[in-house]
């Protein structure tokens, strides 16, 4: 459970902003979206491989 302490005199908008930031950092929304659909293991491996290739190309360009 995510708890956002609200200081006295702090606006609700700021508290909501903090809550949204904490949700993004924990990855709750991302995990929920991933659980809504099933992805085959072969598709997941392919995506990881493509991501690794992309990152490697970026690192080579920086050098």
SSE run: HHH
How many strand elements? 0
Oligomer: single chain
**Large-scale geometry:** elongated
Distance between the termini: 43 Å
Unreliable sequence segments = none
Number of domains as seen in the coordinates: 1
- Nearest-integer average pLDDT: 92
What class, by secondary structure content? mainly alpha
Main attributes of the structure:
0% strand; 3 helices; 63 residues
Give your account of this protein's structure.
By secondary structure, this protein is an all-alpha fold. Helix content is 73%, strand content 0%. It contains 3 helices and no strands. The longest helix has 22 residues, at 41-62.
Brief summary of the model shown:
This protein is mainly alpha-helical and 63 residues long.
SSE map:
Layout: H1 12-26, H2 28-36, H3 41-62
């Amino acid at each position: 459970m995510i708890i956002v302490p609200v200081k006295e005199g702090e606006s609700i908008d700021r508290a909501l902003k903090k809550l949204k930031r904490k949700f993004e950092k924990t990855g709750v929304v991302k995990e929920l979206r991933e659980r809504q659909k099933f992805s085959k293991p072969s598709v997941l491996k392919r995506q990881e491989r493509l991501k690794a290739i992309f990152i490697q190309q970026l690192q080579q360009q920086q050098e």
